[in-house]
Write a structure and sequence with these properties.
heterodimer, B: mainly alpha
Chain lengths: 693, 129
């Protein structure tokens, strides 16, 4: 064979090529047919990453959709221990930034696990400092962190979360399932440089947003006044509840002491407790409202009935119960306004234990109100069979019974709204994307008749006008309420403490069209401890600000002297509030102030309906046409008074200020004819804010 | 016997090679098909790599969107903090010297400025009697 022959050479090359191709084909076949699964898995391990997508917690809003709690992403640092060459050195460097012990970090960095947390949810400054260390094997991962932008505001209602964003208190806990959302997974394809170039994802279900019934501004007013009252009285704890008596919606729930939900671990469980729903206390005289409501509803007494209060002492089952003052003969209205224990006990005894128990249960005591917040206490109400002979008397004046502030607020709201007990609620609606899921309004149930409720409202107004709650008297608004001063049980002796009290006031305003029910409770105030002295002024300050904020029109004329005194005071003390003055204090105001108030106030429009009623019209003869006045902008009370003075029969619809009337203003109308007036709430700020100097 | 190797000189330069038209067409078709196949292969490869590049871009855009969304959330949080009643109250009182309006300074309005109140048909005095 001639190797130099072209044919041989061609043949040789062809054979070699064939062999090479055969070998390649064989290898390819081997890889594709026999090793396919292994190599595919290896490639996927290198290219694919499964990333857990944690859902973002929903936002908590107040009733005006202002954010109260929301989550944003922050960096957490983690380490892959096998990649760290010198764990002790890395631990020392990290400990310097994080402010923790190096040993603790070193233990983690030296572990055999493939992933360890270095520190979670770091501040941007710490992240920068760790990045500057440029440590091999230390990485960052985004995590959601819950923030409460208003810090302590409404903290007890909102609750708080743990490091894994799990709700541990308040609405965060109660609606954790809805707010938390569902985690998602993401399959990511990454190249050799770990750059992502494709993904397929099972999206995380974002948590639902929750709209609360709270109003951020009312909550602030309540917390500000509670803090001030607690500081002044040096009370151990305190609560303010503001409720819409018609719907049962809680507009504010303030607790003292406060806590910061951004750092819940910094405060103890006592501070984190929502006392408005979880703390039991003996209501004391505020509970006489229930006793008298039951007595009036059962028809066993009338407001004008005179009862002998036996100069302040009564014996029940061998026990002598003393009144706080030696009252003689008092009407039932006076028993309420003067808060006579003996009078209340006598009415309770006349009512009898079963009936009293029945009404207490009807008003919601002894069972949870059903408020949509966790940790509600059902209260303490023993069954009648377990009552002692003295129980009827004790319970009639608010002892031997434990209530929560929200229970008592709801009971008084029932009196305010005409006799219907409405379940209090804190959650208005749940929003999932664009879908709005309203929380159904609770069905109210009747506790007392509208007539009894009206009688009680009048009696409670007496408490504020001439009774123990005079410091709760509002300027420009009618108000009703009841003071309470309850002795606390001394845990050491098991008896009522002579030094520790719970001062409280619960009331509502305005009387004819109540916009808010407010309860104030202060635990163990030092010095002055009567509800009328300590809690009633807080009611005044809160109510005046809240009613003004809600644009509730004044239903009684504003005292010009009060305005002048307030303005004068502001000149001396710009920080002072007008609410520092009470009509009662004003009675002692100096004459100079009274004289100074005579000219029209520049900040008040002369036509403002709250200043004075329209001048009286001359009387008209029977059957003669009466020109119908314009009721526009006037309050319910003003319209009623004017109609009655003119001999017209008013038909009033709605609440607030008059917006529509029929017949129209200026028309001649017969005396005794029905005038329909519609009301709506609406107001505007007149003038500019007042400067202190 | 002696053999002689004689070189026979053949000069084909003057011969004209006839062109086979069919053969050339076949060749051209083959080249065109080859070119087409190569073009398709190149197009496929280009598309493939372009697709990968677009995936990278898409991922970058998604990451950017997530970042912007997160920034938006952080700004919302900051706005919420700035709108805190506690902060506004402090600024109003201490920096601006404002105070809570006195009673009566916030007064109900006098009805709608441009609205028409509900009215009934006017009844003449004679009709009423």
């Amino acid at each position: 064979m001639d190797w130099r022959s072209p044919r041989v050479r061609i043949l040789l090359v062809s054979v070699l090529a064939l062999v090479w191709m055969g070998a390649a084909l064989a290898r390819l076949s081997y890889l594709q047919l026999f090793q396919y699964g292994d190599y595919l898995a290896r490639a996927q391990r290198q290219q694919q990453r499964i990333v857990e997508v944690s859902p973002r917690r929903g936002i908590l809003y107040d009733r005006n959709l202002r954010e109260l709690a929301m989550s944003v992403q922050v960096d957490s640092s983690f380490a892959v221990p096998v990649e760290i060459a010198d764990p002790p050195m890395a631990a020392r460097l990290l400990a310097g930034v994080l402010g923790t012990s190096p040993e603790e970090i070193e233990t983690r960095l030296s572990s055999s696990r493939s992933f360890v947390w270095v520190a979670r949810k770091l501040s941007p400054e710490k992240v920068e400092r760790i990045q500057a260390l440029n440590l091999r094997g230390v990485y960052f991962q985004k995590e959601n962190q819950r923030f409460y932008p208003h810090r302590e505001l409404a903290a007890h209602v909102l609750g708080y979360v743990d490091i894994d964003e799990k709700g541990l208190g308040g609405v965060e806990y109660a609606l954790d399932k809805q707010i938390r959302g569902k985690p998602g997974r993401m399959l990511v394809l990454a190249d050799a440089r770990r750059r992502w170039f494709d993904r397929s994802e099972h999206a995380a279900g974002s948590g639902a947003n929750v709209v609360l019934t709270l109003d951020q501004n009312i909550q602030y007013i309540a917390e500000k006044e509670l803090a001030e009252a607690a500081r002044q009285s040096r009370a151990l704890a305190g609560t303010i509840v503001v409720q819409d008596p018609l719907t049962g919606e809680l507009l504010a729930v303030a607790n003292w002491p406060p806590f910061n939900p951004n750092a819940p671990a910094d405060s103890g469980p006592e501070s984190r407790m929502n006392r408005a729903i979880g703390a039991l206390y003996e209501p004391g005289s505020t509970f006489k409202v229930v006793t008298l409501a039951a007595a009036l509803e059962e028809g066993i007494t009338r407001p004008e009935e005179v009862i002998d209060c036996q100069m302040g002492a009564i014996y029940i089952a061998g026990h002598r119960i003393r009144d706080h003052k030696p009252f003689g003969l008092l009407t039932v209205s006076q028993i309420m306004s003067e808060s006579s224990d003996v009078g209340a006990i006598k009415l309770g005894l006349r009512l009898g234990a079963p009936k009293l128990f029945q009404y207490m249960r009807a008003f919601g005591f002894g069972s949870p109100t059903g408020v949509d917040l966790p940790g509600e206490n059902r209260g303490l109400l023993r069954r009648v069979e377990n009552w002692t002979p003295i129980s009827v008397g004790s319970i009639s004046m608010g002892q031997e019974i434990g209530v929560t502030p929200v229970q008592l607020t709801s009971a008084v709201s029932a009196i305010a709204n005409g006799g219907l007990l409405v379940r209090p609620r804190a959650v208005r609606e749940i929003r999932r994307g664009l879908e709005v899921i309203p929380v159904p309004a609770p069905e109210p149930h009747r506790v007392i008749s509208p007539q009894t409720a009206a009688t009680l409202r009048s009696m409670l107004e007496g408490v504020v006008l001439q009774g123990t709650g005079m410091l709760a008297r509002l300027d420009g608004y009618t108000a009703a309420g009841k003071t309470g001063t309850a002795q606390k049980i001394d845990p050491a002796t098991g008896r009522y403490s002579p030094t520790q009290h719970i001062a409280s006031f619960v009331g509502f305003a305005p009387i004819n069209s109540p916009a808010v029910t407010i309860l104030i409770s202060l635990d163990s105030p030092v010095g002055r401890y009567h509800g009328g002295e300590v809690a009633a002024p807080v009611f005044k300050r809160v109510a005046e600000q809240v009613l003004s904020y809600l644009n509730v029109p004044h239903d009684v004329p504003i005292s010009p002297r009060l305005q002048e005194a307030a303005l004068r005071s502001k000149k001396n003390n710009p920080i002072a509030d007008v609410s520092d003055f009470t009509p009662a204090q004003l009675e002692q105001a100096d004459d100079a102030v009274a004289e100074a108030s005579q000219p029209a106030q520049p900040w008040l429009p002369r036509s403002a309906p709250t200043v004075a009623l329209a001048p009286a019209r001359p009387g008209l003869a029977e059957g003669e046409g009466i020109p119908v006045p314009s009721f526009s902008g006037k309050s319910v009370r003003q319209v009623t008074e004017e109609c009655l003075r003119l001999g017209l029969n008013p038909v009033l619809v709605g609440t607030g200020v008059a917006t529509e009337q029929s017949p129209a203003a200026g028309e001649l109308f017969r005396r005794g004819g029905r005038v329909m007036v519609r009301f709506a709430r609406r107001a505007s700020l007149v003038g500019t804010s007042v400067r202190g100097n | 016997m002696t053999e002689f190797y004689t070189v026979k000189r053949i000069d084909n330069s003057r011969l004209a090679r006839p062109t086979a038209a069919n053969r050339m067409r076949e060749l051209a078709r083959l080249v065109a098909m080859g070119g087409l196949l190569a073009g398709v292969a190149l197009l496929y490869a280009w598309q493939h790599f372009q697709c990968i590049q677009l995936r990278y871009q898409l991922e970058e855009l998604k990451a950017e969107r997530a970042q912007v969304g997160e920034l938006n959330q952080q700004l919302k949080l900051e706005v919420a903090g700035l709108r805190s009643p506690m902060r506004i109250d402090a600024i109003a009182r201490r920096e601006l010297g404002l105070s809570v309006p006195v009673p009566g300074q916030v007064a109900p309005t006098q009805g709608p400025a441009d609205g028409v109140l509900a009215q009934v048909r006017a009844i003449s005095p004679s009709a009423r009697q």
